[in-house]
Amino acid sequence: MGRTTIFLLALAVTACAQNPSSKGDDPAEEGTTADPEDIITPTDFASLTLGGTVQGPLGPEVEASFVTEDGVALGDIASRVQCPEGVDPCDPETAEDGTIYTYIYEVRPGFDGPNDEPFPNPERVVPVESGQSFALNFPAHGFTGVAGYSVLDAQEILADGFNASISCEGDRLTWTLPAQSGWSTGETITFFWQSTQPPTGPDGEYRFVGDDMESTGMGPMPREGGEIAAVCE
Predict the structure, then answer these.
(1) Alpha carbons 169 and 132: distance in angstroms, whole number
(2) Which listed site, 157, 192, 210, 229, has its alpha carbon 20 to 30 Å from 163?
(3) Can you state the percent helix, strand and coil of the chain, rounding each to 5?
(4) pLDDT score, position 14
C-alpha cells in the first residue's frame, strides 16, 4: 500500500471517529457497519472531573481476564465506577437522585495480570497484534449519551491519524479500532461511558476482539432501569 493511500485512509478513519454522522466501513468491524444515527461523538477521558470510587464487593476495582472459548487469555480488564466531582465517598445507597456514574475500563491486549479471586487466570496468554473492539455484552442501562476514551492513550499507542469510533446498537456500546491502528500487546487504552444507574456487582460481561478472536471478561454491571440515550434506539 502506498504512502498516499495510507494517508487518505487515516483521514477517513479520523473523520469517522469525530463526526457522529459518518458511517464506519472498516473491516475491523467484523463485516458490519453502524448506521450513522448509531455513532457517538467520543469525549476525552481527560476532560472529566470525577469524585470517589464505588466500593463494590471486590473493592474499588474489578480485575479480570478476557478469555476465549478455548480458555486462553486474550487480554486484561480493570474496571471501576466513579461518582461526579464532590461526591466522595461514592456510595450509591446515599447518593442523591440523578447522580451520574462513570464506568471506566482499562483494557490491555495480550497481557493478563492477577485477577480478583472469583476470576481465575487462564494458564496461557496469547499475544495480540491488532486489538479491534471492546464492547458491553449487556444493555447500557441508564446511558446518558456520553462515552469516550483516553485520547492521550490513543495518541501514544495508535498509528498517526487513527482513533476509536463508538457506536450503540441494540442498547449495547461498542468501541471499534481499525486493524491498521496498531493497538497491540501490552498497550492499555482507557474507555468509559456514563449512566444514571449505579453498579450492582461484577456480573457484567464485556467483549474484546483481537486478531479476529473473540473473548469475554467480567466487570461492574449497572442496575436495570433508567432511560437509554436515543442514539441507541
Answers:
(1) 17
(2) 229
(3) 15, 40, 45
(4) 39
Cell of 100: 451520574
Task: Report the distance separating Cα 74 and Cα 195, nearest Å.
Answer: 28
Question: What is the amino acid identity at position 127?
Answer: P
pLDDT of residue 10: 37
Residues in contact with 22: Cβ distance below 8 Å, sequence separation at least 6, in sequence order: 15, 16, 36, 39
Tell me the C-alpha to C-alpha distance, in Å, between residue 231 and each of 29, 40, 46: 19, 7, 23
Q: How far is residue 154's CA from residue 56's CA, in Å, rounded to a whole number? A: 29
**Mean residue pLDDT across the chain:** 87
What's phi and psi for 47, nearest 5 deg? -80, -10
What's the pLDDT at 233? 82
pLDDT mean over 173-195? 96
For residue 4, give the DSSP letter.
Answer: H
Domain residue ranges of the chain, discontinuous segments joined by +? 3-232
**91 SS3 class:** coil
According to the model, what pLDDT value does residue 37 have? 72
| Residue 160 neighbours by CB distance under 10 Å | 11
Contact of 209 with 164, CB cutoff 8 Å = no
pLDDT of residue 20: 36
User: What is the C-alpha separation between 138 and 141, in angstroms, rounded?
Assistant: 8
Q: Bigger pLDDT: 22 or 171? A: 171
